[in-house]
Amino acid sequence: MPLTVPDAATTAVAMHMSDGIIDAPVSLLFGLVAFAGLAVCVWRARTDLDEKTVPMAGLVAAFIFAVQMINFPILPGVSGHLLGGALAAILVGPFTGALCIAIVLIVQSLMFADGGVTALGANITNMALVSTFVGYLVALAGHRLLGRGTSVRRLGVVAFVAALCGTVAAATGFVVEYGLGGAAQASLTTVAGYMWGTHTLIGVGEGLITAVTVMAVVRARPDLVYLLRSRTSYATDPIGAVA
C-alpha cells in the first residue's frame, strides 16, 4: 500500500516496494517464494473455479484494480489505498483471490511503475499471499465462531477484522524482508515502527471498505460469496440472513 510521507528516509518504506529497497539476494528469494505460492494457488484454484467463481473473480480483480487507484488520507502527509486481500479471499476464496491480487500487482508494476520489477516477488508475497491468506483464515475463524444464522452486520465485523489483520500481516512481511536485506537508509527499528503504526491505521480504512463491500454482495447475492457457501443459512434463507 503506497505511502506518501515528507521525510525522504521514510518515503522508501511503502507496501509497494520500489527497486532497491531490498537487496538482490532477498529479492530473488521472495521471487521464488511468490512463484511457488502462486503455482500452488493455480493448482488449488482449479477446484474452486465454477460458473459463479470465474466471472466473480474477474469482477473482483477489476474492482480492486480500480479502487487501488484511489488513496485515502491517514495522517498529515500519509495516505494509503485498498490492498484487497481479505476482500478477494472472502468473495472468491484464498487461492483464486491471491491470483486476482497478483495479476493486479503485475499490471501495476509493468504498466504503471507502481512497485519495482525486481521487488515484484516481495510485493506479491506480502500483498497477494500473506494478506489474502491471513485475511481468509481470520474471516473463516470468525464466521465459524459466530455460526449459522449470522447477521450481515456481524459478517461485516468479521470482514473488517479480517482485512485489518491481513493488512498488518502484509506490513509484517515487509518488515521481515527489510530485516533480511534492507538496502535503504532507514533502520529496521524505524521501518518496523513506521510500517506497523501506519498500516494499523490503513487497516482500519481497509476494513471499512471490505466490510461495506462484503455486506453489499451478501445482501444482493449471498450465493456468490465463497466464505458462505458452506453455510446453508445464507444460501437457502438470504432474507432471514440479512435481517
**Approximately how much beta-strand content do the residues carry?**
under 5%
Shape: globular
How many helices? The count is: 10
CATH topology: Arp2/3 complex 21 kDa subunit ARPC3
Q: Determine and state the CATH class.
A: Mainly Alpha
Which blocks of ≥5 consecutive residues have pLDDT under 50?
Answer: 1-13, 231-243
How are the elements arranged and paired?
Layout: H1 8-11, H2 24-48, H3 53-67, E1 72-75, E2 78-80, H4 85-92, H5 94-112, H6 120-146, H7 152-181, H8 188-220, H9 232-236, H10 238-241
Antiparallel strand pairs: 1-2
Helix pairs in contact: 2-5, 2-6, 3-4, 3-5, 4-5, 4-6, 4-7, 4-8, 5-6, 6-7, 7-8
Pfam families: CbiM
Membrane topology: Multi-pass membrane protein
Protein name: Cobalamin biosynthesis protein CbiM
Provide key terms for this protein.
Arp2/3 complex 21 kDa subunit ARPC3, globular, 243 residues, CbiM/NikMN, two-stranded antiparallel sheet, mainly alpha, transmembrane helix, disordered C terminus, disordered N terminus, membrane, single chain, transmembrane, transport, 3% strand
